[in-house]
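Supplementary Methods, section 5.1.

A reviewer requested that the exact input to the structure prediction be made available. We therefore reproduce it here, unchanged from the version used in the analyses.
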Amino acid sequence: MSVVPDVSEDLSNVPVGGSGVIREDDESSQMDAEDSLPAPSLPMQNYAGLSNDPFVVSSSFTSKLQSLEQREIQRNECDVDDDFFSHLLVFYMIKEDWTKARQCRLRAEPLATNIHLNTLILISENLERSETGAAIHLIKNSNFDDPIKSLLREVQKRTILSVLRLVEHMYINIEATELARMLDAESNIELQKILNRIGWKLEDGYVVPKMTSQLVRKIKKMDESPFGPIHTTYDKVPCGPVSNDIDTLIQYGTFMETNMTDLSTNVEAEKFVKSHGGYGDKSGMNNAEKN
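The structure derived from this sequence is encoded token-by-token as follows.
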């Protein structure tokens, strides 16, 4: 297995902000190379737990995800290990299914001492909190083997495009420092390289987002990928009390699932609910049921 070193690549000493000018032909060779590559082929045969399943090898992304979920339901302890949860969690990140990603993280917690799985858990948590810069930073400075490496590259590309679409939809203009934070760009030059790809410019410390032909092409290309289009919901963060109730229910469901054979489950479950403050405000829950 590969190691995830704590390495940060300093692309430029120029701080983010002010004006950045760069020629169109001076774009990042890495970004060009990634853009020209086909989508990851998901060679799941590299994962021993799935090596004898021809359905997984030949199926679409959605079918592969369903196959992983089915394998966990019918699980053999030898099949459901840190490698299994790594694949499942990355699939949920690509799909942007944060509810299932949370459930997956909870089930994987006993194995989180594994550095690779722990890194994926941190990436997932940051993406769910919309801390895209932190998530991208972890991806860029990780060192996974394929197929996880290729899948994480897909997560990074989708995250960057999601941020750009969000900014184009929500902002008239945005400070370069803020956009750089969202994209983990460490300098004007690094930020402008990203902006050049979609026809945006950095001027006087600000970026004016707009729907350009370059951005349209990138969106279309992503829509046609085997992983499907990126989400375009811009108000996905639920209000606090509801979010807390959902988190508690997810944890409770996972707790019950992992303790089904324990005769003391009812007593332990009651302790669990009390320790998490019950299920929130009952009047709120009743109102939710009426709606």
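The CA atoms of residues 47 and 83 lie 7 Å apart. These observations are discussed further in the main text.
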